[in-house]
Design goal:
Layout lengths: L1 E3 L1 H8 L8 H13 L5 H7 L4 E3 L2 E6 L4 E8 L4 E9 H5 L3 H5 L8 H13 L8
Parallel strand pairs: 1-5
Antiparallel strand pairs: 2-3, 3-4, 4-5
Helix pairs in contact: 1-2
Length: 128
């Protein structure tokens, strides 16, 4: 799997008081980059305690001291790191809205149409 992005993990473990998360996050990262998950069931086989929250997968890290919120696109073999937090921060629910876990994922067709519309939109003040 391709993890996007490791720097989000690093930013978290470099915060004051979060140094204990470095090794568990690196262990998770090293495992995931060699994983070949095709489905949620494949991922759950390796991480049975991971939770599906809407369109997100939440991993328990470091003996459940930390939570790692991701969005996985199995077809693309990509794991998007959305947020890392302490268990106490996880219990405070606004992270769900911030990560968009319950928002409908954008469809490829909608994204493609928006790109086409943007390209076709005349520039203000230009002669068409």
């Amino acid at each position: 799997m391709w993890v996007i992005t490791k720097s989000t993990l690093r930013t978290f473990w470099e915060l004051p008081g979060h140094g204990g998360s470095r090794l568990p996050l690196l262990d998770w990262y090293k495992f995931v980059v060699i994983a070949d998950w095709q489905t949620t069931a494949d991922m759950k086989r390796d991480f049975p305690a991971a939770s599906v929250v809407g369109d997100c997968i939440v991993f328990n890290i470091g003996g459940n001291k930390y939570r790692l919120v991701t969005r996985i696109r199995f077809r693309l073999h990509r794991v998007y790191v959305l947020k890392v937090m302490t268990h106490a921060e996880y219990d405070w629910l606004p992270w769900i809205q911030a990560c968009g876990c319950h928002d409908a994922p954008p469809s490829h067709a909608k994204a493609t149409q928006k790109k086409k519309e943007k390209k076709l939109k005349p520039v203000e003040g230009s002669a068409v």
